[in-house]
Amino acid sequence: MSRLRLALGFAGVLLPGVAAAHSPIKGLDNFYAGLLHPVFVPAHLLPILVLGILFGQRGPRSIQPAIIAFLVATLVGLAVTALAPGYDVQLPLLIGAAATGALVALDRDLPLSLFALLAVGLGLLIGLDSAQPELSGRARMAALLGTGIAVYLLLLYAMVFADWFGRRNWQRIGLRVLGSWAAASALLVMSLSLVA
Question: Is 100 left (phi over 0), alpha (psi -120 to 50) or beta?
């Protein structure tokens, strides 16, 4: 009888509960839930960090128009999400993260327009995918404001990290390794999501 209880207890632990990837975090104010949202969604965190590493690797001053393009595109995506939530763009986000990771790993000088185009695409997708459908009105606006601030800070921290650690040749190799890991991680998550 005790083995049966143990087996049932173990099976009960394995049963999934409610799965809501974009729901607010219980117990937190909507702004703070939005602030933590990009950290808890890997399809957002990975592209933001790897794009920040790419920008820092190229030098934030030389790539400033692409940085501004990313932030403006993110704000546009968040504004569209505030009016009409419900976009699921995680697959294109992961494709963008893989491409950005590959660019970090290659460490080649490319035209600024390519970086700006990549930044606009990722920023727009992150903004569009940041909806929390359970929220409405002021609560949704507070969450989206928090998300926008978090995206900016995550990008900034990744840029500073890459700029600081990209000064010596061996450190630049480390950044390239991070880029290849990001690309591999994005491809792995993408393949798992396609199989499931």
Answer: alpha
